[in-house]
Write a structure and sequence with these properties.
- This protein is of the alpha/beta class.
- It has 17 helices and 14 strands.
- Strands 3-10-9-8-7-4-5-6 form an eight-stranded mixed sheet, with helices on both faces.
- The longest helix is centred in the last third of the chain and has 23 residues, at about 390-410.
- The N and C termini lie far apart (about 75 Å).
């Protein structure tokens, strides 16, 4: 007797005829008991109904009822009125799964350590997130979710999901939905003075994916890539994962030091920069440095990845022109993201690439993950086309500006220990400890975390001379900023500042 092909039961019940001297109910009982004891059926797992099991196993329903009744009596199954039969949360002590327990013990003791690739070992210096980022005061780069127009988004989601046809339900083009690429091209052109057609837009899941695609398309394993120091660490590890050698180029008040990059590694294939609002220091790349970087790329047949992660938020002065808009030789890959201006769980970003590189980027995106989620792309396209993105940006820009000014006023209480950098754009500001203090910024950040707020230590981003703290201001009211800064003050004092 074999399990029917249409069965939804996860336990292997083939071979029930292998013990012909044993009643069918006993064979079924033994097989389910073994599955529970081995861990194949997890505690609290719901079993199919006796009617379904009888049909799947090709036996009378009474036979299944007898088997389940025996398992209930033995303590392996519990029955809940109106809900069905479930694996017991705690098994009889004599039948606890020893093999599973041994495996867990080996894993926790390190006996089961697995051989990792060199790439994986390199990435361990910046481990993945195993818990969500928490929206507490000063968490950098996390937009306040309560400001997002959920009702509008949900309405568009229901409308797009209900559209006739199968455009959202089949495999899609790797470069993204045409409607979203058109919306992105128009938005980037209006807001950041980029020059592109919708065909140059590649929809990706994140800045990291865009940079990793650039690393794979434009450089070979072992080639060099310039990165800012201090700088955005996840991107640096994406480049390492692509097999590139990362070259840390210092940043000063004018942005990336191109002359230093030429001295360190003149023949790099890529340069990753955040020119409009350097992460994390907040400085703008000067016009002279921008021209020097473009000249270097053309001279060396290299490419620049321009990460404009928060270019939609500028509070003082005129908007800074994008490198991509200045580029006359097709050397810039412009990267933008909706994950920071809308909500991080969205997972939609984009790359604007020079026309000769479009096909190669699309091929690389196809190999990476096929395409970005189609229904979400459709909702975002409608959100942009119908003006909701522009309204959201106007609203949040005004609120963030108010919170920025409030933070800077309240931060005067730290003026004797921190020198704050530029705060004319974006959602964060960085303070550097004054030279004579010698404060351990990681110790301060840890103490703040224990007190319920989050600041990032500047040393996390590769700064080696003086420590500092990176504050996100967009999510905190004046009162929350004041109480949070008082916690920072106490943490600095305790650390010796």
């Amino acid at each position: 007797m074999t399990k029917h092909a249409g069965s939804v039961f996860s336990v292997d019940v083939t071979g029930l005829d292998s013990a012909p001297g044993q009643p069918a109910y006993a064979r079924i009982c033994d097989r389910i008991r073994t599955a529970i004891s081995s861990g194949a059926l997890a505690p609290n797992a719901r079993l199919p109904s006796s009617r379904t099991l009888a049909k799947d196993l090709g036996v009378a329903r009474n036979t299944v009822d007898w088997a389940l009744g025996q398992l209930v009596a033995d303590g392996y199954i519990v029955r809940r009125r109106g809900a069905g039969s479930f694996v017991a949360a705690q098994l009889p002590e004599r039948d606890a799964p020893p093999l599973l327990s041994k495996r867990v013990a080996m894993a926790t003791s390190g006996e089961a350590e697995r051989r990792l690739s060199l790439r994986a070992k390199a990435l361990q210096s910046y481990p993945g997130h195993h818990r969500p980022a928490v929206a507490v005061p000063f968490t950098p780069s996390l937009p306040p979710i309560e400001l997002f127009p959920r009702k509008v988004w949900n309405r568009l989601l229901m409308r797009e999901a209900g559209r006739p046809g199968s455009a959202y339900w089949e495999y899609g083009a790797s470069n993204g939905l045409p409607a979203l690429r058109e919306a992105i091209a128009a938005h980037a052109s209006a807001m950041r003075a980029t020059r592109c057609s919708p065909e140059q837009v590649i929809v990706v899941t994140s800045t990291q994916q865009a940079v990793e695609l650039a690393g794979k398309v434009l450089a070979d394993p072992g080639d060099h890539a310039w990165v800012e120091m201090p700088g955005y660490q996840p991107v640096q590890h994406c480049l390492r994962a692509a097999g590139l050698q990362v070259v840390s180029v210092p940043v000063d008040e004018q942005g990336l030091d191109v002359a230093a990059g030429r001295m360190l590694e003149p023949h790099a294939r890529l340069a990753y920069v955040t020119p409009a609002h350097q992460y994390p220091l907040g400085v703008e790349m000067s016009l002279a440095r921008r021209k020097a970087l473009l000249d270097w790329a053309l001279e060396q047949d290299a490419y620049i990845v321009e990460d404009d992660y928060d270019g939609d938020y500028r509070y003082e002065g005129r908007p800074i022109a994008s490198l991509q808009g200045m580029d006359g030789s097709g050397r810039v890959i412009y990267v933008g993201s909706f994950n920071k201006i809308l909500f991080p769980g969205l997972r939609i970003a984009y790359a604007i690439v020079p026309e000769p590189l479009v096909a190669a980027f699309v091929d690389a995106k196809h190999v990476a993950d096929g395409h970005t989620a189609l229904l979400t792309q459709g909702v975002l396209a409608a959100f942009i086309h119908e003006g909701h993105l522009a309204r959201h940006l106007r609203k949040t820009r005004a609120i963030y500006d108010e919170r920025r000014l409030a933070f800077l006023e309240e931060a005067n209480m730290l003026a004797d220990v921190l020198e704050f950098g530029p705060a004319t754009a974006g959602m964060h500001v960085t303070g550097i400890f004054k030279q004579a203090l010698g404060v351990d910024d990681r110790a301060v950040a840890a103490a703040c975390a224990r007190a319920g707020i989050e600041v990032h230590p500047l040393s996390k981003y590769g700064a080696t001379d003086r420590g500092g703290l990176v504050f996100g201001f967009a999510g905190s009211s004046r009162a929350a900023a004041r109480s949070g800064l008082e916690i920072v003050r106490r943490a600095v004092t305790a650390a010796g500042g």
